[in-house]
Protein 1
Amino acid sequence: MTKLLSTIESPVQLQSMSTAELEQVADEIRETLCNLLSKRAAHFASNLGVVELCLALHSTFDFRSDRLIWDTGHQVYPHKLITGRYHEFQSIRTRGGLMGYPNPNESEYDLFMTGHAGCSVSTMVGLRSGDDVQGRTDNHSVAVIGDGAFPSGIVFEALNNASELKSKMLVILNDNEMSICPRVGGMASYLDRLRSNPFYTGMKSEVVNLLNKVPVFGDPTEKLLFQIKEGVKAGMHGGMMFEDFGFKYFGPIDGHNIHVVKKYLKMVKDMDGPVLLHVITNKGHGFQPAAEDPVYFHTPPAFQLEGETPVPTSTAKAVAYTNHARDAILDQMKHNEKATVITAAMCQGNKLEPVREAFPDRFFDVGICESHAVAFAAGQAKTGLRPIVDIYSTFLQRSYDQIFQEVCLQDLPVTFMMDRGGLTAADGPTHHGTFDIGYMRIFPNMVVMTPGDANDIGAMLDFALAQDSPCCMRYPKTEASEIKRELQTVELGKAEVLQWGTDGTILCAGTQLAACHEAARQLQQEGLDIGVVNARFVKPVDREIVRRAIEETSFVVTVEEGMLMGGFGSAVLEAANEMHLDASRIHRLGIPDTFVEHGKRDELLADLKLDTDGIMETCRQAASVAKSKNIVG
C-alpha cells in the first residue's frame, strides 16, 4: 500500500515530513518500482539506489525555483513519483505514457532530457551562470552524477569552468561502484581510496550519532565536527583532486540514511563557491536480488515474485541482432589476432561478456568516454591492429569529431559496430539511433553498411576487417530475422537482388528487408510485380542497381529505419541525379524531420509506415502515380 506516496502531488509536501515519514515514502517507492516490473521491463537497480537521495534533495531544496539535473536520466523514477506523476506512473515507457527519462514536457521539475551520461555538470554550470547574469542569485543549482559517468571528459571541462566562475553550485557524486557494468579506470580506483577513508569506514557510526544531536548548520559543535573532519581529510589527502579544481569536498557519506544526507545538504546549501558532496549508495538497495546482481537488474525483463525470488514472466525470444554481432566479433577474435574490441561502458548492453572473458588482453572497456574510445581505436589502428569499436549508435554521436579527425581524415582501418541503429522502442528519443546513416556517410573514406538480416552480419564484419579504410555497420535492437536464400558474397558497393520485378522495385537499406520481402509477396497477389533489393551499402551505393531499377520499373521505393534527411533515400536521389535519371520515380520511406517518441517497436514502425502494411501502401500509391503519369519501366 502506498499510503503516503499516493498523496504526494508536489515535492514541497516532503519538506514538512519527519524522517520516519520520509523512510516510509522510500519503502513505498520501492514497492511501486517492484509492481512496475511485474508488468514490463524498465530501469530498476539504478532507481532503487537513489530513493533516499531523491527524497533528501526534494525535502531540502525547492526545485520550482532551484535547479536540479539528473545525469543519466534512467534513474529518475523516484523523482517522477514525487513530482506529481504517481497516478500516471504505471504508463511509463508505453506509447503515450510517461517517458523513462526526464522530460520537460511532463513536468517543470524536469529541465533537460538526459538519456546519456556526463553533461549534468556542464548544464548545471550553465544554469548557474544564466541565473547569475540575470540577477537570480538566491536559488541553487544541483547536479547529481554517478561515479560511472564521472570520468567522461566533458565532466572535467565543466569542473574546470566551474572553478573559474566561483559561483554557488552543488555537484553530488553518487558513488555506487557501478556504471551499468562495474566501472573501470583510474577514477574508479581514486574513488575506492576515498571510500576507504577512515572518516567513512571507521568513524561512520560515531559521525552519524554526532550529527543526530546537532540540529542546524551554524552550531559551534557542528562547525567543530567539520573542522575535525577536514583535518582527517587533509591528512589522508581525501578529495584533494576536487579541491584542486576549486571545489569544497565533503564526504563520503551514507546515501541511504535520509537524516544524514539532509544534514549535509543543509550544511553545504548556502556555502559560497562550488561544492562536491560525495554520497555512497548501492544499486538495487532495498531489493536483495537487485543488490546482489545490479548488472542483470539494470533493466531486467518483467518478473513476478515467488517468495523472495523474481521469476521472469516473459517467454524466451528469438536471438537478437546484438547476439549475432557479438558472435561475429567473437569469431573474428578467434581467427584474427590483430582484431581488438573497444566499448564505452556497454559490455553488458552489447552482450560482449564472452569476448571480454575469452580475450581480456584484446578487450578494452574505456568507461563512458566515447570520444576517447574512438581516438584510442585510431591509435591502435595506426600500429597495425584492426580495432572494432562497439558502441550504441546514439552514443557514438559523442565522438563525432574523433570519427572525422582521428579516423576518417587519417584513413585508418577502424570498424564501427553501431548497435541500436534505428528505433529502440521504450527508451525513446534519447536512445533511438536514427542519425547514424546521415552522420557517417558524409565522411570521405568511410564505408557505410546496413545488413538486411542476421546472415549479413558475419560476412560484413569479415569484409570490414579486410579493408584498409574505416567501415561502419548498423543494426537495430530487436529480434533478428533471417531470409532463406543463397547468400551472395559481400562486395564493396554491391547490392543483393532478392528478386526482380516488372512493376516496381523496393530498395531496402537495413533489417526491414523481411517486411519488404513480405510486402512484395502480398502485392504479387494483388497483381503488382515488385522487386526487392538488399542494398547492403549506403556508401558507396550500388549505382548500377539504382540505374536498372529506375530504367526498368515504373517506380522505386527506398526503405530505411533512419532519418530521411541525408539518409539512404537521399543517397539514391543523389545517384539518380548524377546519372541524369528520372528521380521523380523515387519514393522514400523513413523517419521524417522529427524526434520519434517512445513506444513498442511495432507501434512506432507502423506509425512511420515502415512495417509491411506501410510499405505495401507506399508501393500502391507509387504505382498509382506512375500509372497516372503513364510511366513505364
Protein 2
Amino acid sequence: MLENMDQEFESQVSINDYLRILYQGRWIIIVSFLVVFFTTVYVTFTTPPQYEAATTIIIESAGAMERTMFDINYFGKDNTMMFNQIEILKSRSLAENVIKRLDLSDVRDSLKLFQPDDDGDYLSVRAMVAILQSNMTIEQKRDTDILDLTYTAGSSFEAAYIANIIASEFQIRNSEANRSEVSEVKDFVQDRLDLKKSELEQSENQLRAYQEKEKVASLDAETGELVNRMAEAESMLEQARVELQANLELKRSLTEQLEQRKQILSDDLSEISTPYLQSLQEQLATAVSERTLYITALEAQGQTPNKQYYEAGVQEYDNRIQALREKLQEEAGKISSSSMVKDPFALSQELVNKALTADAEIKATTAKIEALQDVVADYNVKLENLPVKVLELARLERKRKVDEENFIFLTKKLEEMKIQEAGQSKNVRIIDEAIEPISPVKPKKKLNLMLGVLIGLGLGVGLAFLREYFDNTIKSHEDLEKLGFNILASIPQIQMDKYEKKLERKLEKIGPVEGRKIESRLITHLDPKSPVSEAYRTLRTNLQFSKVDHQLKSILVTSSGPKEGKSTTAANLAIALAQIGQKVVLVDADFRRPVVHSIFGIKKDEGVTNYLMDTIKFDQIVKPTFNENLFVICSGVLPPNPSELLASKAMENLIERLIKDFDTVIFDSPPVIAVTDAAILSRKVDGTILVVNSGNTNRDALIRCNTLLESVGTIPLGILLNGVNIEGMYGSYYYYYYHHYYSKPGRKKKKSMSKIISI
C-alpha cells in the first residue's frame, strides 16, 4: 500500500505545487537574480571596449606561369588554393613581418602592442605574434574567392590600421612569391636568348663568308626544300629542349619553395604518384611523340598533304592528348587532396600540384625530343649524299635557319614572361580597406544585461526546483494527503519573540518564582486566542471524535525522529484538554532524553522510573501545575534498561491506575525509528499520534515509522503537522483562510524573523 502511496505522490503534481516551489524558493531566486545581474553589470561596464575592423581581399585564380609559357594545364583545385591562402594569412612568419612594419610605422607609440604593462614590461615578439593571431579572424565568402579579414583591438584606429597592414603585407608577400616562380624561369630564358643571339650572329657570318669564298649564291630548289624541312625539325627539337630545361628549372624552383615551407621533401616528386597517374603520363608522352612523328613524316615524303585530311589527323591527336591531360588533372587533384600530400604538405598542395604538372610535361617533352631526334637523324643521312660544296652550304644555311627560328621563339617567350611577371602582382587585390568602426562590438551592453536578467532568473528558478528535487521532507497538508495519512491538525510556527514578550508580562503578574516555571512553548496557556492555540484545540476536537466506539483515555505522542516538536505538542494538547475541565496527566515516558520537566520547570528526580523501581510512592510522582486540572509526571532517574521498564508489568499497572484516576493520560515518548520504546508503549495505550515537523521530517522516515508501528499492530490515530510556515504555503486555501481569519482587521502584519523551536 505504501508503494502505491509513493507512486501516487510522485505522479500527482499540480500547478499549485510549482507555484509553492517558486514561492518557497523566492529568496533563492531573488538572491540568484541579484548576484548574476549585478555581476553582469559590473563585468559589462568595467570590461574595456573592443572594436572590429574588416578589410575585404579577393584572391584571383591567376594563370600560372607554366600555362602561359608552355601550355601546361594546372591540376590544382581552387578550394585548396583558398585554404592555402587562409593558412598563409594566419602564419607566424606573416605576423612577424606585420609586427616589423608596425614597429617602423609613425603610429607605433599609439598601438597597444608596443605599450608596457602595469609592471613596466614590454611584450616579446612571440607574445605580439600570439596576440596578433588570436585577434584576427578570416572568413571566406561562400562560392567566391573573397576573404573577409577582421581584426579586433582596443581602439577603433588600431583595429582598422592593423587590419590594413595585415592585408597589405599579405599582398606584398603573395606578389613576391608569384614573381619568384616566373623570375627564375625568365632568367633561364634570358640566358638562352643571349646565347642563341650570339649563335645566330655566328651562323650568319659563317654562311656569308662561305658564300663569298666559294662564289655560291644559293642552293637549288630541291636541296633548299630539304634544308628547310631539316631546319624546321631541328628548330622544333631545339624548342623542345628549351621547354624541357624550362620545366626542369620550374620543378627545381617549386622544390626549393616546398623545402623552404616544410623543409621536408622527397628528392623525386614523381614518387608522389599512383600507378594510374604514371600510366597516364606515359600515354601522354606517347601521344605527343606520335603527333610529332605524324607531322614530320608527311613533310619528309615531300608531299603536299590534303589540308582537310591533314587537319583531321592532327585534330585526332590533339583530342587524344587533351583527354589524357584532363584525366591527369583529375588524378592529380585526387592526389593533392589525399593524405599523401595533405600531411606534411598541408600548406603546399598548390606547389605539389604544379610540381606534378611539371613532371608530367617533362616526360611528354622528353618523348617529343626523342621523336624529333630520329627525324633529324634521317635528314642528316639524306644530306650526306649531296656534293661536298653543296653539303657545306646546306649545313650552314640549316644552322642559320635553326638559330633564327629559335631566336624568334625565345624572344617571343621572353616577352610573354615579362608580361606574366608583371601580372603576377595582381593575384591578390584589396577590394575594401578597413575603416575605423563607429561603436565597439564588445561588450554588448543591452544584450549582456538582458542575458543577465534571464540567466539570473533562470538560475534562481533552477536552484529552487533543484532544492525541491533533493528535498524529501514533508512540508504541507497536501503532502500528507498524497501519502494517504489522516491529518489531525496543522500547527503553525511558534513565533517565540512574540510570546517571550507575553511571558514577561505574565511574570509581572504571577511572580518571578512561579513564572520561571512556565516555558514559553506553552502557547495554549500563554495566548489562548492565538491561531496556534486554536490549532491545538482543533487537535483536541479531532481526537474526541477519532474513536466513536469508546473514549480515548490514554494517548501516546511520538515522532519518526528527534527535534520534531512532540514534547511541545504533548504539553499543549494536555493544556487544551485541561482547559475544558478534563483532569489530565502528562507523563514523560522518554527515559533517554526527557524534556517535559524543563518545559514546566519541575525537577525530574522523582518520576516514572523511581515508581517502577518501587523507590517512591504514587502520590510523590504526580506534580501539580499552573492549571488545577493539569498534572505532570516526570521521567525520573535515567535507567540503563528503558525498553525493559516500559515493557514490564509494573508499567501496565501504572497505566491502569493513571487511567482510573485521570480523565486523559498523555505520554511523551522517544522517536519510533531511533529506539523501540514508542513501539512498545503504543501497544499499551488507546491511541498514538505521529508528530511531523514541516520542512524537517523526511518522507521516507515517516513511511518507515508508520511501517514499524503497523508491524506491532498499532494503527496511528493520525498525523499532527507541526511548525507549518503559513507565509510559505502559497496556493493552499486551508492556510490562507485560516491565517486570514485569525489576523486582526485593520492592522498590517509585521514581518519578523521567527525563532522556531521543536523538540
Protein 3
Amino acid sequence: MDKKSYRKERLNFRLYNLKKSWRLFYSSKYGKIGFYILVVFVILSLISPLIIQHSNSLTYIAPEGDFTAAHKQFSSTLPSSNTANYIDSTTSGSRDLGTYLIYTLSSSGVYGVDTCNHHTYNLASINHAYNLTAFTAYNSGEKDTYSYVITANSSELFIGKTTWSSSICGHGTPTLSNKSISMKNVVAAPFTSAFSYHSTEITSTFEYDLNYHTSTIYPVYIYTITKNATGYYLNEYYMYNLLHTSNHKPIFSQKLPYNIKPGNDEYYAAGLTSKAEVLVSQGSHITGYYTDGTIGTNKNLSSKINEVYIPSSYQYLSNNYNQIFVSTNHTVYGIYPLNNTKTVIFNTNNKQTINYIASTSGSTGFPSYFLVSLSNKTLSVLNNPNSIVRYMKLPVDITGISRYSGNFLLYNNHDYLYLPGDYVSSGSYIWTLSISKVTSTPIFLLNPVSARESISISYGNTISVYSTSGEDLNPMPPTFHTISGNIFPLGTTVSGNDVWSEFIGGFPVDLEIGLAVGIGILIISLVIGMLIGYFAGIVSSGFETFALAIYLIPNLPLLIVVAAIVGPSLTGIIMVLTLLSWPFAAFTLIGIIRSLKTRSFVDAAKVSGASTLQILKNHMLKNVTPILVYLTSINIGGAVAAVSTLQVLGIAPLTVPTWGGMLDGFYSDAFDLAIAPWWFIPPIIAITLFIMAFIFVSRGMDNVVNPRVAGGRR
C-alpha cells in the first residue's frame, strides 16, 4: 500500500472512531443536554457585542434622571368645592419668615397651606382675582416683619398681611388681615418692587420697609395696569400709603405708548438705585419707567415679545454689563438699560420656536449658563452671546422654567425635570415627575421643617411639596420605559449599573476564563502525567510528591491566599487557577499511563524499535484522549465556579464583567437579594447552567471513556 492510500485509510479510521465516539456521547441524555446548553452559551458569547447595551458595563451608570424620582415631602388637599379653580400659588420671604405658608388663589378667595403641620386655612374672600404676589417686608412703625399678599380683580386691589395667633411667625393659626382698595378697570395682576423668595435670591440682601417716610431701607412700590377710553396706564403707589393712609393717589400714572394690552411686566431693581425700572411690554415694544415716572428703557423689536427675564445678580448689583433679556418667537435680545442699546443673544433662524429662557445669576458678567428652551424638545445652553456650549435633548416639550439660586425646574402642564445648576454643564437632570392634571406654575421655597429648598406644585385642589434632592430608585426593577428613552431589561444594581449589560458581558469573559484554565490544566497535567507515569526514578518521585503536596492543601484557602498576592487581574487569576488546579488531573493520568505501560502493545512497540516519543504519541496519547476531554470539561466548569467564588468573596475584583462579580453585592448585603432578585438571579442561573453543562458533558463522556458503562445507560 502506498503512502497516500495509507494516509487515507488512517484518516477514515480516525473519522470512524470520532463518529463512534460522538454516537456514544450523544446517546447519553446528560451529554446531549450539556452539549445544547454549551451551544447556547457559545452563541450568546459570539453575539454579545451585538446585544449588549453598554460595553463599559462596569463603569456605566444610568442617567440620574432615570433612577431618581421626585421625593414628596407632603401633600395637602384644598376644599373640593373649588376643584379646578385654583389658579395660582406663591410663597414669600427673605430668611424663613414667609415660607410657613404656601398661598393659593381660587375663584372665591385666598387659601394657605402650612408647611409645618400641612393644614389648610381659608384666609380671605375675594372674587375672581388675578394671580397672587407674596413677599416679606419690614414695618418700622410696628417694629416687626410680616408676609404680605397682593392680588386684584377688575375693580379692587387686595392687600393682606399674615399674622399668627401665637405672635410668633409659623406658630399657631394664621390669619390674613386685609384691606381692599377700590380701583377701576384693573386689567392685569398687580406687582411690586419687592421680590418673593421663589422669584430671585436677592431677598436675603434687601430689606423692604413699608414706612418709607422714616426708613433708610427700601420702600415697597405697588404697580397696577388699568385701562380707560384713552388707553392703558401704568400706576405706581407707595404700599405704605395704601395700607395706612387714606391717600391712595398714585405717585405717577403714565399712559403706555401703545393701545395693546401689556403682555409682560418685570421690576428691574438695579440694586434699588435711581436706575431701578418697572418694565412693561406691549406687542414688540418694551418700555421701562423709573420710580419717578420718567422713561428709561425704550426699545422696539422686530416681533412680539414673549418673555422678559432678568438674572438675579443684575437686580442687586448695578453694573454696566447688566442686561434685560427679552425673547420673541425666534430671537433672544439683550437690552442694556445703561445706554438703551440691544444685542442679539440667540437666534433660531426661524427653524424652531423659543419656549422659555432662564440663566444662572450672572454675578460677574454674562451668566455662566443661559438656557433657551426650544419647541423641538431641545435645551440650548450658552455661556456667551451666540456661543452654544451644549445642546440638551429633553424627553418632553417645555413651556416654562422656574429657577432659584442657579437651579432650574423645567416643566409643562404635566411633566417636571429638575436640573441643578451644577448639572447644567453635564446636561443631565436628576429627577423627573409626571402629573396627569393641569397645574399652576411651580415655585421654589425654603422649607422651614428641613431648612432646605423645596418645590411646591399645585394641581387641581392639591398642593404637594417635593424635595429638590429627589429619591434614589436604585436598584430599579426591569423596565422598558424611562424618561430618557433607555431600557433596562434586567433593571439596575444599587449603584445604577445596567444589569443586562453586565450579564451579557459576562458570557464571553467567563467562557474565556473557563477555556483558558481548562486548556492550561490540560497541558500541564498531560505533560506531568505522561512523564511521571511512564518514567520511574528520583525525579519522577519528586514531581509526584510535589503534586501530592499541592493536591492535599485545602484548595479554597490556598486559592484565596495566592489570588490576594497576585492581585485582581484577569491574567493573574487565570494563572493562579491553572497552577493550583492541575494535580487532580495529573494523578488521574499518572494512574492510566502506568496501567497502559504494562500492556502488550507497548512491549510490541518497544520490540519493533519505536522510540519513547513515538510510544507516548502514538499509543499513550491516543488512549488517554477521551479521558482528557472528560477532565477538561470538569476543569472548565470548576474554573468558572472558582472565579465566581473569589469574586463573591471580594478577593478578585476584576475590571471585566463576570457573573461572579455581579454577585459580590449579594455577599456584602444579602438583603439586596430580596429586594432586587433581577440583579442576582440571572448570574446565579448562568453559573449553575454553565457548571451543570460541563458536568453533563463529562457524564456523556463516560460512554466514550468507559463503553461498558454506556451499555448499561442506554
Protein 4
Amino acid sequence: MLDNLSLIRNVGKFDSVDAGANLGLNRLALIYAENSRGKTTLATILRSLGDKEPLPIIERTRLGGQGEPHIVIANNNGDTAMFENGAWNDSDLNIQVFDDAFVADNIFSGIDVDTEHRQKLHELIIGAEGVALNTALQQIVERIEAHNRAIREKGALITDVMRCGLSVEAFCALEYIADIDNLLQEAERSLAAARKSELIAQRNPFISLSLPDFDTEALNTLLAKSLPDIETAAADKVNEHIANLGEGGESWIATGMKVVTENDLDDCPFCKQDLSGSDIIGHYQSIFSQEYLALKEEISTSLSTLGREHRAELMTAFERNVRTLTENRQFWSEFIDIPEIDLDTALVTRLWRSCFDAIKALLDAKKESPLEAFSVNQEILDLIEEYRAARKGVHDLSNSLVAVNERIALLKESAAGSNVAALEVDLNRLKAVKSRYSDEVSVLCDDYLAEVTLKTATEEERVKARTALDQYRAQVFPQYQEAINRYLNKFNAGYRLEKVSSVNIRGGSSCSYRVLIENTSVPLNSNEVGKPSFKTTLSSGDRNALALAFFFSSIEMNADRANMVVIIDDPMTSLDDHRSLTTRQEIKALVNDVNQVIVLSHSKAFLCGLWDSVDKTLVSTMKISRLGSGSTLSEWHVDQDSITEHDRNYLMVSEFIENGHEVDERAVAVALRPILESYVRVTCPSVFKPGYLLGPFIGHCQQLENTAEQILNPDTRIELRALLDYANDFHHDTNPAWQTANINEQELLDHAKRTIKFVHI
C-alpha cells in the first residue's frame, strides 16, 4: 500500500512538492482537484510506477523547471519507490489505473474500437497468468520468425545456379547417390541421343578392319626348293645359251623341248639335223623337266598371290576405313563408351609395304634362280613380326569396335522412342544431386536444414504453448463475459455483451465481442454503410459504463487482487446519477477486496458521497491546490466542503426531475443558470472567468466557431443559448419581474432535464 507522496519535482504542474510527505494515504484515499491542477499528472505518475514505464513522466517534464523529474513515494512496508535519472528503482507494486489512458488503450478511442484495443483488452481479460502464457507463446512465435528470417537468409546463399532451378526445400531434401558421376554421364548421353535421334537412326555401326598376313613358313619352303639331279655346270651352260638367245629364248626352248623327245633326237624340229650328238640337248632335257617347270610355276604363283593379297588398293581401303571408324567413334562416343582409336596407320602402312617389298624381292630372286636355295633372313623376319604385332592391334581394335554395335542397336531403339522433356528433368535432377553434395554446397544445405530442424522443434513448442493458452482462455473468457454483464446490469445499461472470445491474429491474440441491444447483435465495426455498430449504438455514458465494467471485471478476475493498488481517475464522466451512485458503491466494495483504492476527481459531490458512505477510519483525503503558477498537495476537510452551492442546486434540480411537485419549482428555475455557469466555469476556466456572464461568453464562442480556437461546437453553443434564454427569465439582472414570471411545470421539467444532460456532456 502507498503511504504518502513524499516528493514530486519537475513533473507537470508540480515544481518541487514535498507537502504530501505529511499527508498519509489510507486504504481509501480521496484526492480532489479542479481541472488543470494536476490530477491527470498524478494518475500518470502512479500508472508509470505500476508499469515501470518512464516515458509518460519524461513527457510531462515541467516546462521551465530546473532539473529532471524526481519522484519519491513511500510504501507502508518501509520501501520507497523512487524515480530519478529517467527511471524507477526496483520497487515492485501491483498498480492498476482506471483513467482516460486505460480506456483509450484497452477499450476504445472516442467512438472506435480498433485492432490494438482488442489486443490490449485480450491481455486485460486473461490477467497475469494468461499474459504469462500469451507472452511465452509470443516469444515462441518471435523465435519462429527469427528462424524464418534465418532460413530465408541461409536459403539465399544457396543460389539458383547451385539448385539447378529447384526450390531450396526440394534441393536440400535430395538424397545422396553414390554413383552420381556415372549416372550423370548416362543421363547426359541419353538426352543427347534423344535430341539427335534422327542422326543416330541414319548413322551406320562400326565396320571391321582386316589386314592380310605373310605366310613365312610357306615362303621359306618355296625359297629352299631346288632340283638336286641337275648339274650346276649344265645349268650354267643352258642359262648362258638362253641369255644369248635374247628375250623369250627360254620359252622358245621350253616349247621346242616338248616337241623333241628322248626317243626322237634324229631330226631337229627346226633344221632337221640329228640332235643325238648334241650335248646341250641333254642339258635342255634336264633343265626343262616337269619338276623344273613346276618349281618355276610355283614361284610365279607365289608372286601372283603376294601381289593379289597385298595389292596397294587394300592399303588405301584400310586407311579410308580407319578414317571412317574415327569419325564414327567421334559421333557414337557422345552417347556410349567407345574404345579409343590409337592407331598409327602410317606405321602400319610402312611395315606392310616393307614386308611386301622384301618378300617380293626374295621371290623375284628365286624366280631368276630356281635351282638356287634362298631363305628369309632374320632382319626380314623381325620386320614381319613387327608388322604382325601392328596387324594384331588393328584386329583387336576392330573387334572391340564391332562389339559395340550391339549397344549401338539398343541406342538406336531407345533414342527413337525417348521423351526429351522427361530426360531433361532427369538430367537436371542428377545435376542438382551432384551440386547438392559438393563440398561447398553441402555445408550451406546442412546449415539450412539445421535451421529448419530448429524451427520444426520450435513449432512443436508453439503448439503446446497455444494449447495451454487456449485451454486457459476457454475457461476465463466465459467467466469474464458473465462478470462484465453483471456490472453492466448494475449500471442499468440497456445492452449486454455476447460472444466475448479470443481470436488469434498475425500480431498475436485479440479479443472479440458483440454488443447485444434489444436482442439485436451489433458488431464492433461494420464495413457496411448505414449498418449499426459500436460507434453508432452506444452513447458516451454507455461507453464509459462499459469501460468501468471492463475495469471492475479485470480486478475481480485477478487472483492477486488482494495485493493490488487501484487508482481511479474521474470514473463518473458522462455517467448519470444512478451510474454515479453505482460507481461509488463498487468502489466502496472494492476497498474490501484490494490492498488500497485511490480515487481522484474534480467532482466534490462524487467524492463527498463516497466519503460519506465508508468507514472514516479507512479513508484519507487531500486535494491538489494552486501554488503560484503550479500546484501542490494539501489537506482537504471534506466535512466542511462536502456540500457546495452548486451541489445543492444540482441535487435540487435532480430531485425535481425525480419527484416533481415536492420541490419548489421557482427555486428550481432560479437554480438552472448557476448550474450552467458553474459547469462552464469548470470546463472553460481560461475563458469563462469569475464575473463573466454567459451571454457574452456564448457570443464569444460563436465568433470563434470553425477556427483553431473554437471553444464549443455549434450544436453545444446553440443548446447553451436556448437553456440560458429560459433561465434568464428567473434572474433579477435579466428580468425585473423574475419573481412573478409564470412557470409551466412541463416546460420547467424539460429545461431541467436538458440542463442536467448538458452538464454531463
